[in-house]
Amino acid sequence: MTQTRYKQDRGLTTRMVTSMFLIGLLYVVLVGVLLVALGKFWPIILVLAGVLFVVQFWFSDKIAAFGMGAHEVTQEQAPALHGAVDRICALADMPKPKVAIARSDIPNAFATGRNERTALVCVTTGMLRRLEPEELEGVLAHEMSHVAHRDVAVMTIASFLGVLAGVITRIALYSGLSRSARNAGPAGLAILLVPVVSAVVYVIGFLLTRLLSRYRELSADRTAAQLTGRPSALASALTKVSGQMARIPTEDLRRAEPYNAFYFVPAFSSKQSIGRLFSSHPTLEQRLEQLARISVELGRP
Fold first, then answer.
1. What's the pLDDT tens digit per position in 255-297?
2. What is the chain's mean pLDDT, rounded?
3. Domains of the chain (ranges plus CATH)?
4. Among 175, 170, 161, 173, CA closest to 212
5. Radius of gyration of the chain from Cα atoms?
6. Largest CB tally within 10 Å, which of 103, 196, 217, 278?
7. CA geometry: angle at 178 spanning 175 and 184, to 5°?
8. Which residues, other chains included, contact 130 with Cβ-Cβ below 8 Å and sequence gap of 6+?
9. Which residues belong to the active site?
10. Contact call for residues 115 and 150 (beta carbons, < 8 A)
11. Does 217 carry a binding-site annotation?
12. Transmembrane ranges (predicted)?
């Protein structure tokens, strides 16, 4: 974690290190299975895996920001938003990230970037229209906590293995690889292992990133509330944004779902209870309960 006034979270650090170790181990297993099953193509496998990793690490934040419609804005274009970010930066004693706005009625915010130099904090027009200044500052403090703790970068890297395994599984299922392998004798059995191992790796990687993501959201809520000293403002923003999600058209929510791991509040309507089981965020009740405890603690002499 960089040196800021955000409180260090050893639990988050431990989970990030553990998740990266396990996901790295899974990555080695996946590449190893591919090399065994498709031995004569090993140069292509290694090059492809290396290229995908580089692209994921260096450009995934830009791809995510583009996909979510983030457009960087200047001080003159959004003085109120820049002013709120400036106040949080001064409070946290950290460099100012790039500031962006996404034209979307979905009330949300997110942060991307590998480090403080490439960090970007974005707020949607829907959130700017609905939140009061204190509520918006609470949300921005939450998002900048992700930047300070560098868990945005960890989530970006952690998601790579799931993406790679998912691509391999889809290629195997839709290219007729399994049918060809059944007719290829013992060699075909080795090839059949590729989609099976890829699917297992995808599921394990998915669960690991979800567990890390839920904890990091609670950590960001906690450290943002402690930094600003106004947990009630963040709780109010959470309640307001979560309540507004049910009013957003389902089609818009579905387009936003792939980026839920980055959002302040996941893009789910109240009817999507199955999706909530695999949500990248803790429940609203858990987040509000934690903020209520912090409010009591801050009120003590």
1. 888 788 889 998 875 455 445 556 778 999 999 999 999 999 9
2. 82
3. 10-65+152-210 (no CATH), 75-150+212-299 (3.30.2010.10)
4. 161
5. 21
6. 217
7. 115
8. 107, 240, 241, 244
9. 143
10. yes
11. yes
12. 12-35, 41-59, 152-175, 187-208
- pLDDT tens string 139-165: 999 999 999 998 887 776 666 665 555
Task: Work out the end-to-end distance of the chain between its first and last CA atoms, rounded to an integer number of angstroms.
Answer: 30
Residue that wins the pLDDT comparison between 51 and 132: 132
Please state whether the predicted TM-score (pTM) of the whole model is above 0.85.
no
Q: Which amino acid is at 282?
A: P
Q: Is 146 flagged in the annotation as binding?
A: yes
In 10 A of CB 146, how many CB atoms?
28
Instruction: Say which amino acid occupies 234.
Output: L
C-alpha to C-alpha distance for 182 and 25, rounded to whole angstroms:
29
| Secondary structure (DSSP) of 97-120 | PEEEEE--SS--EEEE-SSTTT-E
Residue 72 CA, distance from chain mean position? 20
User: For 30-39, 106-115, 232-241, 273-282, which range has the lowest pLDDT when averaged over its residues?
Assistant: 273-282
Find where tokens 């003085």 sit: 79
**Which two structure tokens, joined as six digits, stand for 113?**
């970037």
What are 129's two structure tokens?
Answer: 């229209």
Helices 186-228 and 133-149 sit at what angle, rounded to 10 degrees? 130
